[in-house]
Automatic annotation (TrEMBL):
InterPro entries according to UniProt: FAD-bd, FAD/NAD-bd_sf, Flavin-dep_Halogenase_NPB
PANTHER family reported for this sequence: FAD-BINDING PROTEIN, SLR1998 PROTEIN
Protein name: FAD-dependent oxidoreductase
Domain FAD-binding: 7-300
A Pfam match: FAD_binding_3
GO molecular function: FAD binding
Amino acid sequence: MSTNVFEIIVAGGGPSGCAAAIVLKQAGLNVCLINKEYNMPYKAGESIPGATMRLFKRLGIDTITDLLDDTEYKRCSANVSSWGSDDWVYSSGMLNPEGAGFHVDRVMFDKALLMKAKALGIPVYSAMIDDVVLNNDSDVRFKVSLREGEIQEVSANWLIDATGRKAVIGKKLGYKRTKVDNQMAVVNWVSFPKQDNDNSTRIKSVQEGWWYTSLLPGGKRVISFQGLSDEIGALYKNPEQLLEKFNSEAILPYKLTTQSLLHSNAVEAGIAKPESVIYNGVLCVGDAALSFDPLSSQGIFFALYSGIKAAESVIGCLDTPLQKDSILNHYQQLIDRVFMENQKSRKYFYSTEMRYFNKPYWKARRAF
């Protein structure tokens, strides 16, 4: 078995992992990325708020065109919602000083960030994580076994868990993760007619949950429904029923049929978090640190933010070892503050929908 030793291992090659690895490499540290290849053409999570541009600059990315070409993103013109009433409320992106943001081809976005990391000379292991061993008495604290044909091993004293909601590192090391919410979502990608040029984000609340849709690059539109698991399971198994329900809400000025359906997926869409985002040289980032309710549209932003902040924390610990505890506690406090602020906003928005107060989905929102 071959073993390669690094200062830091980043497990997970999504936005949070790439952001962490890029910042660590910029600081001159010996870092590697472990990335299980994603071979599907569709992936949920396409919204990039305008404020994300500040985070891009920290990664050496001046504009979104440094990552994606014109066919891989669309500007979001506005947020349009029917929430708490049947009326549609329009909020123009022009009113946001940082811009309304973008809708991206998420698969291409993730690939572009990974290419940015590779271009900096960061070794990327395209492999599954087979095992993680922690030994605090060893000169090298972590040994991570990779399954890529023959088993390889990488070692380091720091490990960043960027493995998403699955939180692979935490699970293998036996750390607990708590589900704060049990929300699910069924996500559908559809083709759309040529006359559809609505580049807004649209959401609408209904008795069983809420709808979301936005126009994507490449001739696709994403439609998702957020609800309780039984409802989501039924709609996932019956796409015709799902589209009928969507059409009945008049969210778009045209009807969709199953002939327009390109792909469907059912995913967890609730809030989940570990007891701590720091433990024994492991720092959690992205969904492994805190998975969001999709109502926030903060998934990509938080992924980049937490990846950057975790990397800066490791850099600080290596530069000033005597301040290690203080630096790591500060990172924990940052994530805790994000969680508390997100919960406050989330509770407020769900509380403004009073028409379905006693319906199971909306009662469940008030419980968290």
